[in-house]
């Protein structure tokens, strides 16, 4: 079974199928510039990092892997041609059960608000209506929250608008935020070590120049 993606440098591949292997990391695919269709189902992948430079990618199947966070899709958010994504069988994608109004599931909307270019998610059509629901759920400039306020003001000019449909609060940290946090923490550690070294140097100098020094 294949454990790493390698040996593809410069190959004019447009499709690549590596299902049912033991791949843990998506790597070296920036060296396959024409790749449009990628199948990595049934591996051990936990992150979509490694796909950010696959600008020709249209179809991505990472079903039955170990992806736990919806925000992993932010790694493919800027791929201009991506229109089909399969995440079924991952911890992030819920098992389909009869709808229960008491258990709202925002999985699809959370994916679609980030990947507005998708026409298919998990083999199901991603409709314009569903994408609108996704935008409304999360609020922001592209939702209809501002329009609601404008309409309310026209009808009730003397009353203050109150949004009774609060936006969904995302609990997962952004992938980019995590990277920035790691970088910040590393910089902070270096800065702290530098300050401590200077402090010790000053203390040593002060001790040498003190009453017992020369």
UniProtKB/TrEMBL annotation:
Q: Which InterPro entries match?
A: Cilia_flagella_integrity, Leu-rich_rpt, LRR_dom_sf
Q: Keywords assigned by UniProt?
A: Leucine-rich repeat, Repeat
The lineage's top-level taxon is Eukaryota
Which Gene3D superfamilies does the record match to this protein? Ribonuclease Inhibitor
Q: Which residues form a coiled coil?
A: none
Tell me if DNA repair is a UniProt keyword of this record.
no
Q: What is this protein called?
A: U2A'/phosphoprotein 32 family A C-terminal domain-containing protein
Which organism does this record belong to?
Answer: Florenciella parvula
Taxonomy-wise, where does this protein's organism fall, top ranks first?
A: Eukaryota, Sar, Stramenopiles, Ochrophyta, Dictyochophyceae
């Amino acid at each position: 079974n294949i454990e790493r993606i390698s040996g593809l440098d410069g190959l004019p591949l447009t499709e690549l199928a590596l299902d049912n292997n033991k791949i843990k990391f998506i790597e070296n695919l920036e060296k396959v510039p024409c790749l449009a269709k990628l199948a990595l189902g049934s591996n051990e992948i936990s992150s979509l990092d490694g796909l950010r430079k696959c600008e020709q990618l249209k179809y991505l199947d990472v079903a039955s892997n170990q992806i736990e966070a919806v925000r992993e899709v932010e790694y493919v958010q800027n791929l201009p041609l991506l229109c089909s994504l399969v995440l079924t069988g991952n911890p992030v994608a819920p098992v389909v059960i009869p709808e229960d109004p008491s258990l709202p599931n925002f999985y699809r909307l959370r994916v679609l608000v980030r990947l507005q270019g998708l026409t298919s998610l998990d083999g199901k059509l991603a409709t314009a209506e569903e994408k609108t629901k996704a935008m409304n759920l999360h609020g922001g400039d592209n939702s209809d929250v501002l329009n609601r306020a404008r309409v309310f003001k026209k009808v009730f000019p003397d009353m203050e608008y109150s949004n009774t449909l609060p936006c969904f609060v995302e609990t997962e940290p952004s992938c980019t935020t995590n990277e920035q946090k790691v970088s910040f923490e590393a910089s902070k550690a270096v800065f702290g070590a530098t300050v401590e070294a200077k402090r010790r140097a000053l203390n040593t100098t002060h001790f040498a120049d003190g009453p017992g020094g020369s």
